[in-house]
Design brief:
By secondary structure, this protein is an alpha/beta fold. Helices cover about 60% and strands about 10% of the residues. The strands form 2 sheets. Strands 1-2-6-5 form a 4-stranded mixed beta sheet. The chain has a two-stranded antiparallel sheet with strand order 3-4.
Length: about 260
C-alpha cells in the first residue's frame, strides 16, 4: 500500500513539473519554483508602493498575491506597441489587476487570454477607427493604455480603474464561453446579469444613479463598472446596492469592506 502511494505521489509531482515547464520553459519554471526571500521582499516593496489594495491584505494574502503576480508575469505574453518597452516592472503592473480580481479563486489563470498588448497612451482601434484606452478581444487578447492603467491605481477611490475594468471583461467572457474557470461562478454571474437588467434601465433614466452612465451601455460594461466600484468604493457600493454587492462578494470570493 505504501509503495502504491509513493508511485501515485511521484506521478502527481511529475505531471506538475511537466505542466509547469510546458508553460514557463525550464528557466522560467526554476525561477518561479525558487522564488527566494530576497526576491519576495523586493516584490513586496514594489506592490506596497503602487497598490492600495495590496496594503489592505493580510500577510498570508500578500504572499499569495506576490506569487501569483510573479507567475502570471512569466506566463502571459505581454507585448509593447508603438515602441513601448516592456520591463519586468511593467509586467508586474500589467498582471496586478488580474491577481486582484481573482485573489479569492483557486483557479486564478484566465487561460483563454494569453496575450496583453500595451500602448503608451490612447490608441486607434484598427477595425473601428475609434480611439481607445483599452479593450478585450474574446479571441484571447487584452489591450491596455499604460498611462491610463497606472492612473487607475494611483487614485484608489475614484471608481475608475482600467486594469480592473478590462480584466472584468476577460473574466466574464471566460465564465460565459468556457468551463475553464473557478468552479461555481456561473450562478452568481447569472444573478448579477439579472440585476443588471433592472439597474441599467434606472441608469438610463436617472442622472443620479450610483454607477456612472457608462454602466448602462450593456451587461458587459455594467459588470466591469461594478467591479471598479466594488474594489474602489466598497462601503458606498454595499450601502447603495446591497443585493448586487452581495452577489459580487459571492462571485469574486472577496469582501473588501
Amino acid at each position: 500500500m505504501e509503495s502504491t502511494n509513493n508511485i501515485f505521489f511521484i506521478l502527481i509531482l511529475t505531471f506538475f513539473i511537466i505542466y509547469s515547464i510546458r508553460y514557463f520553459g525550464i528557466f522560467g519554471f526554476l525561477d518561479v519554483l525558487f522564488l527566494n526571500r530576497e526576491k519576495i521582499w523586493k516584490l513586496k516593496n514594489f506592490f506596497s508602493k503602487h497598490f492600495h489594495y495590496f496594503n489592505q491584505l493580510s500577510e498570508k494574502d500578500k504572499e499569495r498575491f506576490i506569487y501569483r503576480a510573479y507567475k502570471l508575469s512569466k506566463l502571459i505574453n505581454i507585448i509593447g506597441r508603438q515602441d513601448f518597452v516592456i520591463t519586468p516592472e511593467v509586467r508586474l503592473f500589467v498582471v496586478a489587476a488580474q491577481v486582484q480580481l481573482t485573489l479569492g479563486f483557486k483557479q486564478y489563470e484566465l487561460n483563454k487570454f494569453h496575450t496583453i498588448l500595451v500602448y503608451p497612451d490612447v490608441y486607434k482601434n484598427k477595425i473601428t477607427g475609434n480611439m481607445h484606452y483599452g479593450e478585450v478581444n474574446p479571441k484571447g487578447v487584452i489591450v491596455l493604455s499604460w498611462k491610463r492603467l497606472v492612473n487607475g491605481f494611483e487614485i484608489p477611490d475614484d471608481k475608475i480603474n482600467l486594469g480592473l475594468h478590462e480584466m472584468a471583461h476577460a473574466l466574464m467572457h471566460t465564465i460565459i464561453s468556457s468551463n475553464d474557470h473557478e468552479y461555481g461562478l456561473d450562478p452568481y454571474l447569472r444573478d448579477i446579469v439579472r440585476l443588471s437588467q433592472l439597474e441599467m434601465d434606472k441608469i438610463k433614466n436617472d442622472d443620479h444613479h450610483f454607477f456612472r452612465k457608462y454602466a448602462g451601455t450593456n451587461i458587459y460594461e455594467f459588470f466591469s463598472v461594478a467591479v471598479e466600484y466594488f474594489f474602489e468604493v466598497p462601503g458606498e457600493f454595499k450601502k447603495e446596492l446591497p443585493e448586487l454587492y452581495q452577489f459580487m462578494v459571492s462571485l469574486l470570493k472577496q469582501n473588501p469592506v
